Structures are given as C-alpha cells and as structure tokens.
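Budget justification aside, the reviewers requested a transparent look at the raw inputs and outputs of the sequence design task funded under Objective 1. We therefore reproduce one unedited record. The lines immediately below are the structure tokens for a 249-residue chain.
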C-alpha cells in the first residue's frame, strides 16, 4: 500500500479528459491535499492507506460501472466506495462515479432510453444542504447513457424524465449523474475528444451549440457548483482534521 504523509482526498479518474475541474479549486481553497489516481485497469492497485483518506471522489468515464471483467479496477472502486460510506468518509461521485457508488450501495444499473447529452433542466425532488440554493429546477450539463435506480436507504435529490435518479445522497455520499465540475476549458477538452463527441449528431447537437449553451447557463451553474463542491471540501476538511488529531494521539 502506498503511504500518505497526511490525510488527503483520494480522486479516482478513469480517462485523461474527465478531470476533477472545479472540484480541485474548492479543495485547494481549504489547503486540502489530494491524490489523483487511475486504477481502472488494475486488479490490485497500489492505494493509499484507507485510514489516511479524508474523502473519496470518483469521476466520470466511458465504461460501465459493472464492467469489472474488462476494467477490474472498477470492482476495487466499488469496494472503496462502500467502505468509505460505511465509516462516514465524505464521498462524491460524478456520472460514472455516481453509478459506481450507487451500484455499490445496491442500486440497479441499466441502459438509458437514449443518450442524455447537453444542457437540460433537472427537477429537484427533495431539498438538502447540497442543493439548498436552487428551487424547483435548473439546467445542467448531461453526458451519459447508463442510469441507476435508487441505492438502498438513499434520498433522491433530483431527476429528469429519462433519468429518475439524477442526484442522490446516502450517509456521507453524494452522487450526481450530471457535470457541475466542467469549466469552459474542460469543455473544450471534451469537444476535442472523439469518443466524447461521437453521439452529438444522434442528439441533434453541434460543438458550437454546446459552447453557446455553456455560455448561457454557466453564470447560474457556477454558484451551484461552488455550493456543492465547497460543501464537500468542508466535509473533507473536518474529516481530515479528525484524522490528524487521531494520528497525533
């Protein structure tokens, strides 16, 4: 097992272009250390000591959450997510990460009716600190095919017509099917990646339309992303301080 000199947030990334984006900004604002690893294809990855992990982030990616045979590291990620929630470590999943956490906690995974790509509104199902600043609906960036059911004991926070669980919380975990982490520069990386844009025509979108949508909705999304990710970072910071205090005893 690798060693962490101090409590840090562990970020699991599956492909180079699905990076943490805005999530990092909020961790850095609090001076929180983090480690970004890609373990998706490793059956026995070298991971930091679990007790030193102050928070867990699982990013998006093109694979399926249960493609364990092709990508054995996904099974490890599922086990990590379940373990993190069981001991109350702050845990955040985006898109594929949302599905990994959800299925680890008993949700069913299935193919969506059609790819959900582009900016479209999600409807708030239940109010929670994570999403307290928006009322009934807000347009967010979608980019996925698979969907999950409701994890065991979860509170569903948001939905769309085609995706009944757009966001959920259960214990210390928050899952979001949509992408609040994407900045303008990160969007450009996505638009340059052939595997990301291959389905645009099927949903009637062009790259320029996506850029226009981002410019239109980002002023509203920026404060929501700040609320969600700063809240997550604060939870990680509290957990890190508790870990550091226990290590000092």
């Amino acid at each position: 097992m690798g060693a962490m000199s101090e409590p840090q947030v562990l970020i699991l990334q599956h492909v180079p272009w699905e990076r943490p984006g805005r999530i990092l900004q909020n961790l850095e604002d609090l001076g929180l250390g983090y480690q970004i690893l890609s373990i998706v294809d490793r059956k026995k990855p070298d991971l930091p000591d679990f007790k030193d992990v102050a928070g867990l982030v699982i990013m998006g990616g093109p694979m399926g959450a249960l493609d364990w045979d092709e990508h054995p590291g996904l099974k490890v990620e599922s086990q990590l997510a379940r373990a993190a929630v069981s001991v109350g470590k702050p845990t955040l999943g985006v898109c594929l990460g949302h599905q990994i956490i959800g299925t680890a906690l008993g949700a069913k995974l299935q193919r969506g009716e059609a790819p959900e790509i582009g900016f479209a509104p999600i409807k708030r199902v239940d109010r929670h600190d994570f999403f307290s600043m928006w009322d009934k609906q807000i347009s967010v960036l979608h980019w996925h095919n698979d969907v999950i059911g409701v994890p065991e004991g979860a509170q569903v926070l948001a939905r769309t017509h085609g995706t009944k669980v757009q966001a959920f919380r259960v214990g210390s975990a928050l899952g979001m099917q949509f992408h609040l982490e994407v900045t303008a520069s990160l969007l450009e990386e996505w638009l340059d990646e052939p595997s990301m844009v291959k389905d645009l025509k099927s949903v009637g979108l062009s790259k320029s339309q996506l850029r226009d949508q981002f410019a239109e909705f980002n002023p509203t999304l920026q404060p929501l992303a700040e609320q969600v990710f700063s809240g997550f970072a604060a939870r990680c910071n509290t957990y890190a301080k508790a870990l550091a205090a226990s290590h000092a005893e």
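The helical segments are 22-29, 73-86, 96-104, 184-191, 194-197, 207-248. DSSP finds six helices and nine strands in the chain. Computational costs for records of this kind are itemized in the attached budget.
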